[in-house]
Amino acid sequence: MNVIVVKNAAEGGKKGAEIFMTAWQNGAKVYGLATGSTPLTTYAELCSSAIDFRKCTSVNLDEYVGLGPDDEQSYAYFMQKHLFNQKPFAHSYIPNGLAPDLAKEVAHYDQIIADHPVDLQILGIGRNGHIGFNEPGTPFDSTTHEVQLTQSTIDANSRFFANEADVPRSALSMGMASIMQAHQILLEAYGDAKADAIAKAIEGPVTEDVPASILQRHPNVTIIIDEAAAQKLHGQY
Ligand SMILES: O=P(O)(O)OC[C@H]1O[C@](O)(CO)[C@@H](O)[C@@H]1O
């Protein structure tokens, strides 16, 4: 793991965008994308850069069940607003949270991932160590699946909704095995609230109780964290 400690999310976004730019210059065609507040500075840097995704494909990690692309809280809406409007891709895939048959949608999304192996995957991390919406306890061999969100994730994400009751209780998420298939992974984390999860993910045992700890087994991972998120690490980075 290549761990980079930066001053703040603004500096992290610049480093994150540099990693995208290098991958793109080296011919990366498929980008695994994430939502949440963490990737925002990287996306903002990409939007003002010369990167051109018009011959590339994006595959997003997850989507809430019950929310469609017109819903401002949906991840489809988020991606449009923060990246795709400024930097369109040839094809962008996001799980369909409105699919009438979720089992069929899950199989369909697995096929999309199989058809478009991810060159560079960006990840945030939940306070409980989740990646995508893979909550603690998710099997490491999981592929796309429907997830019942934990109360910790519902609470954390309620800041984006008018009230907690509006937060969907389930989501569709790429699985752990799907994420690990990416050729290169970039995880970013900022702020005190991520310090425990970061310490466990980088220096703790590899365990399904801390989904992000699986990244210790991936050969090409960069982790960008600010000093607040790094405060519980023991090693020198
Ligand atoms: O970046 P945030 O908003 O702290 O969220 C962290 C993680 O939680 C999720 O938003 C899901 O709850 C992920 O998509 C994200 O990586």
TrEMBL record:
Keywords: Carbohydrate metabolism, Hydrolase
Name of the gene: nagB
Family listed: Belongs to the glucosamine/galactosamine-6-phosphate isomerase family. NagB subfamily.
Active site per database record: 62 (proton acceptor), 128 (for ring-opening step), 130 (proton acceptor), 135 (for ring-opening step)
InterPro entries the record matches: Glc/Gal-6P_isomerase, Glucosamine6P_isomerase, Glucosamine6P_isomerase_CS, NagB/RpiA_transferase-like
One Pfam family in the UniProt entry: Glucosamine_iso
A GO cellular component entry from the record: cytoplasm
Signal sequence annotation: none
Organism: Limosilactobacillus coleohominis 101-4-CHN
Catalytic activity: alpha-D-glucosamine 6-phosphate + H2O = beta-D-fructose 6-phosphate + NH4(+)
Domain (Glucosamine/galactosamine-6-phosphate isomerase): residue spans on this chain: 31-218
Pathway(s) per entry: Amino-sugar metabolism; N-acetylneuraminate degradation; D-fructose 6-phosphate from N-acetylneuraminate: step 5/5
Entry protein name: Glucosamine-6-phosphate deaminase
Gene Ontology terms describing biological process: carbohydrate metabolic process; glucosamine catabolic process; N-acetylglucosamine catabolic process; N-acetylneuraminate catabolic process
EC number: 3.5.99.6
Molecular function per GO: glucosamine-6-phosphate deaminase activity; identical protein binding
